[in-house]
Amino acid sequence: MIERRKSKQINIGNVKVGGDAPVSVQSMCNTDTRDVEVTLYHINELANAGCEIVRLAVLNADAAAAIKEIVKKSPVPLVADIHFDYKLAIECLNNGIHALRLNPGNIGKRENVEKVVKLAKINQTPIRIGVNGGSLEKNLLDSDMPLAEKMVNSAMGHIRILEDLDFDLIKVSLKSSDVMTTIEAYRLIAEKIPYPLHLGVTEAGTMRQGLIKSSIGLGTLLAEGIGDTIRVSLTESPVEEVSAGFDILKALGLRKKGVNFISCPTCGRTQIDLISLAKQVEERFKDIESPITIATMGCAVNGPGEARHADFGIAGGVGEGLVFQKGEIVAKVPESELLNKLDEIVRKSYK
């Protein structure tokens, strides 16, 4: 059992973040926020995949204006991503946004920051301070301290601005494209502040490299109890980010939503097309939200035994295979019928 870091709980819309709330999965729309219809379609697509918080880029006044209609129709809480222009933050707050992502030190004069924070406090709208290792303040970039420390110092500077204005609905992220720098930055700040932390390895890459980097970075921190929300950043469909996020959480026992798929590696005993079959099993049962384990094993020698902890499973043979439940064989069918027989047995118990 992982002992979670204790953090202040905040609310992003109807999603609790920090404290004893489960680690939530985030992603970001890659649409033009000014296009309300397309953006809402994408938000619904993410929500249907299980995404719990969605971030939107707000690049200009038209995008900030569109937030009003998007918020009304969104099935999940939304975060407005703001850079430099405090007026965009004000407009989004007036239009009902559930949270802001901005760095108060980057939006101009103190009086402008005060305007944003005053309205955020009235609306009880959290602010995520998002530090990126590649875009730090010049004085920090020029210093000779390790990058992780520079990132923490940047975050602490922004945090102090909010705290000086008596604002504590804060979430913090410190992302680098370097995995070990990201891990070290979060470890350092976790000891310094009480606020919830949003985890991510930024610019992680395409599916293969991105999944590896994110799994190592996020997995290490989550296993240490650090992290309250996550985003798996991939150069891929954001829907894939959501699936990957839940898979990381499931692997650590932090979330139990959906099927845990297990399958054995191929070996000389395998007499079926195990790779194809395992992919078909994963696709067939991806709609099930119950926390069950389904196994796809390559042979009858080890299948039911090695995967006896699985709720359901199949094991291949020569032209035929076994369907088993909790280690007990419940059917023996031709290979061509394996998947459908497994489906029949699973669907009797789970939808």
Put the structure in a nutshell.
With 351 residues, the chain is an alpha/beta fold. The chain has twelve helices and 15 strands.
Q: What is the CA-atom radius of gyration, in angstroms? A: 23 Å
Number of discrete helical segments: 12
Task: Classify the beta-strand content into a percent band.
Answer: 15-25%
Strand order of the largest sheet: 8-7-6-5-4-3-10-9
Number of domains: 2
Unreliable runs: none
Query: If classified by CATH, what would the architecture of the largest domain be?
Result: Alpha-Beta Barrel
Average pLDDT works out at: 92
**Helix content bin:** 25-40%
- Largest sheet properties: 8 strands, parallel
Q: What is the end-to-end distance?
A: 28 Å
Form type = elongated
Give a structural overview.
By secondary structure, this protein is of the alpha/beta class. It folds into 2 domains: 10-251, TIM Barrel (Alpha-Beta Barrel); 260-347, 2-Layer Sandwich (Sulfite Reductase Hemoprotein, domain 1), CATH 3.30.413. It has 12 helices and 15 strands. It has helices at residues 36-48, 61-73, 86-94, 110-123, 138-141, 147-164, 179-190, 207-223, 238-251, 274-284, 303-306, 338-347; strands at residues 10-12, 15-17, 24-28, 53-57, 78-81, 99-101, 127-132, 170-175, 198-199, 229-230, 260-263, 293-297, 312-316, 320-325, 328-334. The strands form 3 sheets. An 8-stranded parallel sheet has the order 8-7-6-5-4-3-10-9. Strand 11 (260-263), helix 10 (274-284) and strand 12 (293-297) form a beta-alpha-beta unit. Helix 3 runs parallel beside helix 4. It is elongated, with a radius of gyration of 23 Å. It starts with 9 loop residues before the first strand and ends with a helix. The mean pLDDT is 92.
